[in-house]
């Protein structure tokens, strides 16, 4: 499973997701058609991520130095952006009792 994720986009995406589940906080600031602004916080740091259309930007050094999509953008575009949409929790049918109680 871990290896499978690592294959995706040179490991970047896999690491992003790994970080996300390891306690990153995503705070959505703006969300509209084709545009997402938000903050990612972890380890006392804060990164501002902006995705607008097909462009994206992040306040981290990784992005500033190389101009590449960093893991924060990955999270914003995938996990984070999906999260800030108010989702109606999918109702699941209650598990059927195996038998009668009493
Ligand atoms: Zn970044």
Task: Give the ligands present.
Answer: zinc ion
Shape: elongated
Task: Enumerate the spans where pLDDT stays under 50 for 5 or more consecutive residues.
Answer: 4-8
Q: What is the number of helices?
A: 4
Describe the secondary structure blueprint for this structure.
Blueprint: H1 2-7, H2 12-21, E1 25-32, E2 35-42, E3 45-52, E4 55-58, H3 61-66, H4 71-83
Antiparallel strand pairs: 1-2, 2-3, 3-4
Helix pairs in contact: 2-4
Bound molecules: zinc ion (ZN).
Zinc ion (ZN) is lined by residues 47, 58, 60, 62-63, 70, 72.
Notes on the structure:
By secondary structure, the protein is of the alpha+beta class. The protein has one domain (2-83). Helices cover 34% and strands 27% of the residues. It contains four helices and four strands; from the N terminus they run ααββββαα. Strands 1-2-3-4 form a four-stranded antiparallel beta sheet. A hairpin with a 2-residue loop joins β3 (45-52) and β4. The model is unreliable at 4-8 (pLDDT under 50). It binds zinc ion. Zinc ion is lined by residues 47, 58, 60, 62-63, 70, 72.
């Amino acid at each position: 499973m871990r290896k499978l994720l690592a294959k995706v986009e040179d490991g970047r995406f896999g690491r992003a997701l790994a970080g996300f589940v390891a306690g990153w906080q995503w705070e959505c600031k703006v969300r509209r058609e084709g545009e997402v602004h938000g903050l990612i916080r972890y380890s006392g740091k804060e990164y501002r991520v902006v995705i607008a259309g097909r462009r994206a930007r992040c306040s981290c050094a990784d992005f500033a130095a190389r101009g590449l999509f960093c893991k924060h953008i990955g999270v914003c575009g995938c996990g984070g952006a999906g999260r800030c949409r108010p989702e109606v929790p999918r109702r699941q049918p209650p598990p059927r009792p195996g038998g009668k109680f009493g």
